[in-house]
Design a protein that fits this description.
Blueprint: H1 2-7, H2 12-28, E1 36-48, E2 55-67, E3 72-78, E4 83-84, H3 87-97, E5 105-112, E6 122-134, E7 137-150, E8 153-163, E9 182-193
Length: 196
């Protein structure tokens, strides 16, 4: 509680660095000699088409780390970093749906299933089994995407749907017509080698 209170007074860049370092320390503590890649400004967006008004938001500060020795991947996003065109929607998203003060982060931690030669240029279809934590609820997921490797740079695209019921995200009956039961999520991460 005190930690969360103090973080509200830290500027955005410092907060981003703390989140990034925390992920790196926690995720790779067991394997310090592995070749690790990081993305500090990944993009996650979501979209819901509705009869009255489309709902869309974009977060450009998503952090992800990839261990190419073990195929492990971790993603962490701060929920309040999702930006909407409509400020009122942003308020409702953080206060009523995601309860961002109580559940500030979305996290995925998993492992890419395919054996990939990470040093070879090319584009590959991939899947990853792991745990998606959203709104304080953990759910096992199989996510599918596409990895492109070019000269030590790795990019990952991954699209999937999140059923709101899976993460106990409740939609008030009065606004049910505005929110789809499944939200389309798109992710784009560009990784570079983590300097030792």
């Amino acid at each position: 509680m005190i930690f969360a209170f103090l973080l509200t007074f830290i500027n955005h860049e410092l907060m981003k660095n703390i989140v990034t370092k925390s992920i790196i320390i926690l995720f790779f503590a067991a394997n310090t000699n592995a070749q690790n890649y990081i993305c500090r400004d990944g993009e996650t967006s979501f979209f819901s088409e509705t009869p009255l008004e489309n709902i869309a938001a974009l977060n450009k500060t998503v952090t992800s780390v990839l261990n190419i020795a073990t195929n492990e991947i971790a993603v962490k996003m701060v929920m309040t970093e999702f930006k909407f065109k409509n400020h009122l929607m942003e308020e409702h998203f953080n206060e009523n749906y995601m309860e961002s003060t109580k559940f500030p982060n979305g996290i995925f931690k998993g492992k890419i299933n395919e054996a990939i030669d990470w040093k070879k240029n090319g584009t590959f279809n991939v899947s990853a089994n792991g745990m998606l934590i959203m709104h304080g609820v953990s759910k096992e997921r199989l996510l599918k995407g596409k990895v492109s490797i070019k000269d030590e740079e790795i990019s990952l695209l991954c699209d999937f749907n999140i059923p709101l019921v899976d993460h106990k995200i409740e939609v008030p009956k009065l606004v049910m017509v505005k929110i789809a039961e499944n939200i389309a999520v798109k992710n784009k991460f560009i990784f570079t080698a983590l300097k030792k």
